[in-house]
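Q: What would this complex look like in 3D?
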Amino acid sequence: MPRIVRHLLLIVVPVVAVFAILPGVYDNHLLLFNFIIFMTLAQGLNVIYGFTGYLPFGYVGFFGAGAYGFSLMVMHLQAPPLVALAVAAAAAIVLALLLTPLFRLSGAYFSIANLAAALAVLQVVSNPNLEGITKGPYGVSLNGVFNPTLSYATALAVLAATLALVIYLRNSHFGMALKAIREDPISAGMAGINVVRERVIAWLLSALIAGLAGGVFAWYVSVFYPETVFSVEFTIFAIVFVLFGGSATVTGPILGAVILYGIYNAVGISTPQYFQLIYGALIMGLVMFLPNGLVSLLQRWGVDVP
Amino acid sequence: MLVYSLLAGLLFGLYFSLIGLGLNLVFGVMRIVNLAHGDFLMLGAFLAFWLFTLFALNPVGAVAIAFVGFMIIGLPLYYLLVPRLLRARDPEMLSFILFFGLSQVIEAVTTIAFGTSERSIPGDQLGRAVTAIASLFAGHPVAPGPVELFGQTFPAAWVASSIASGGAVLLVYLYLYQTRLGYLTRAVMDNRDEAIATGVDVHRVSAIAFGIGIGLAAVAGVFAPFILGSITPAMGGEVTITAFAVIVIGSLGNPLGTVLGGVIYGVSYMLMQSYYSSWANLLPYVLLVAILLVRPSGLLGRRVRNA
Amino acid sequence: MVRLSIFAALLASLTATAQAADAPAEIKLGTLYASAGRYASISLPVHYGLKLWIDQKNAEGGVYVKAFDKKIPLKLVAYDDQSSTATAATLYNQLITQDKVDILISDSGSVLTSVAVPIARDHKMLLIDQTGTGATFFTPDNPYIALMADPVSSIWPKPLADFLTHDGPGLGIKRVAILYATNDFTGTQANAVRKFIKESNSGVEIVYDQGVPTETSNYTVLLNNIRASNPDAVVHLGYAANDIAFLRNVQDSGIKFKFLFCIYPGTENELLEKNLGNGPLNYVFTYVTSSQMAYPTNFGMPLKEFKEAWHKKYGDTKVEFGFNSVAGYTTALVLEKALATAPSLDQLELRKAIFAQSGTLKTLDGPFELDPTGAQIGEITPLGQLVLDGDHLKLVTIWPHELANGKPIYPRP
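A: Here is my prediction, written as structure tokens for the whole assembly.
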């Protein structure tokens, strides 16, 4: 059977099944939900970093835009959750479109500019002058849509769709074009690839994923301050999970998220005062000794990792 | 109100020029994104605090110790981290993450060692140094306290840090343009590959630049308790972003650019505080993005790798 | 006869063992604290205050629980949320669903408490809110929350506003400047001050009213602008780091405001004195919190004794004694009373027991009084002024008059 279908069955089905069953046996649903969110964000970042080489250090901006897009629809228009979710995705895409000029910049400049943009959005959203619209610094409190079961299921659906997308990218012309652009944009252009268009599409897809994740997050927690949904922690975790697992693959970010977020929670609960130290050292060791991630170990031994 | 904001912005901005100076050098020479820059600044601030608390050493003395001490730390740190990094496929991006990890480690160790409470150094410490210098110039004893400039009064600490900043810029300028090592540094900044080809020991040049960069961060840190109110181990993160805004607005590799960037940032920030105070923190981010989109090479113009 | 008494004794022992068999081996208290990050400095003292009580009780064999008519030891399950709300949310959930704690106690401050409010409500667990004063937490349709140790933000500044509008005009105070940090805690207080002043119709007007981001660390230009508005009184509402930077900038620029109010010189006295010294704090008005004022108590240690116990236990840690230490201990005292009077450990029964204390319990934090939604309205902090007496600062209570022990020094010399 075609590779895509095989990978879909091998990866998406088990992951979805596991996270659909776990809430029945493990009561801390919020933790499971966070696992789903981080896996989704890691894959979203994978789309842009793994496949095009650009590192959006302000990736959380799309997540927050999605969360606030969802919240504004619910607070002001009493929209049903799925409609609000669509608006969340749209908000993230609009922000991404606004930021496309940043692609003129290279590497580090792009990352810093993206970070600054995300922080700027946070400042705007949390300003007390906008209290009437976004509730400013006093935080959002959504009434009437609280539904942990449905929002969990939706998050799982978003994750499944994201995984399917990445599998598609991995096995399609589009994905190969992106990788070519990453390696050498000039040669790729000469080979007939529309560099700008392909990159923008990947960028928008990446933002869409984060926006949906943000919307579902807002739905599930229903009470949050601006700093919560624009926290740089989300970007950092997504980047580290992708790097640890291995970028430009499907399984890499999943492995990275499951292992590292699992460690984060285990360490955080048992030896909290050394937690930041351990995590920082882990990140440094990762970059120094395993920059291509866990799956690179497997690839070195000849295993073709999806 | 306007005149005060402009003058205050000038002085305040010069301090941020000092912060950006070290970062400029590091990024310009190695294209390494030192996300731990603010944390080295924090370490310099704590050094000054402990030197004052334990040995009653005036912060002015701490400046020299901070610079030399951190420069000595910077050299082996460079050799430990960077050569390996440069061999990877995507060193610029990986440096981002590596130095972020470093900043987390520094912050964690400092928190474990010193706790999270705010610390300060009494303001009159720097004041005494300023009045000592002022007395020398004026020929007669000058009273301690706020300094008067063009009819407006400013805290003595601001004047002191502006003087230090000016001095640091001058020294870096002299280093880059009057010494052989600085000449080689500029060569590496211009085009690393060509420099290697012509036999320049790029690692040595970079290591020294890295050491100087961190030393400058620590020097800026010595003034931090006075300019930024109080110090905590977590203060580094936001300082780093602002420092990037400053060097991007100016331009890379040129110390004068950093001065310009700092002044522009300082003046705009003070004006924002006066007229649109709740939006003041939005400013550095907007400036950063705007400059990068409109004039990516910075205001003083220098070639920037475009995608 | 003997047989009857043996039978009675057997019956009694049977019921006793039956009751004892019902009793849990320990009462599990679940809470969070922040050991690092933005809120660590207000979180750790609260946590330590709570722990002090726990250790004290366990040394006595446990806390008396009426539901089982015996003393039961306490077990504290505490996790570190690193000042992150996302982590805190997961951890609160962990406490409820995995650790199955008997009593859920929030972390310190509105931000880290906010995420617990819907979680506690969803799981039908009473949230023992230590110092989270956000007015939005307390709504008539949510019974699962009670505020222990801080007055709710919307009435906290009433003593300040009342002084300015009642005594103020007589002293010559007509123009007030307000500078606040834009976050939930201080923003709500600024709204309250504004509201109280406007509603008072006392002729006091607000001539400067600006919000600045909470990360602001430099006030020099702002101070210049405040001075230009020629105020008779200046009110600064910010967190401890803001107060430190603000007061230091005031001193550095040589400005002397006739009346200056800041929150934290009263709330975290040791921390501010360590950072600023006596000079900048002289003549500053602030809240007289329970760590500065010895309230008459009818339960638990009074202030002097508690302070001694604290310094004995935590004197060589880096955690300062201040109002937040008292807050943690106050929470503990309310819990002790609740456990001693509630007929079972059911969450709503505990709530009833806590509300029964409202109006009667007097601790070192002041009179405990809750409004029907669970917001604290009793432990009001009076207005006071710090005055240099020799080489240390004395806090003189100014308002309300019934509690005052001195006259305000206005304008400052």
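A: To summarize the key features: Chain B has one domain: 2-114+128-294. Chain B has a mean pLDDT of 85.
Q: Very helpful, thank you.
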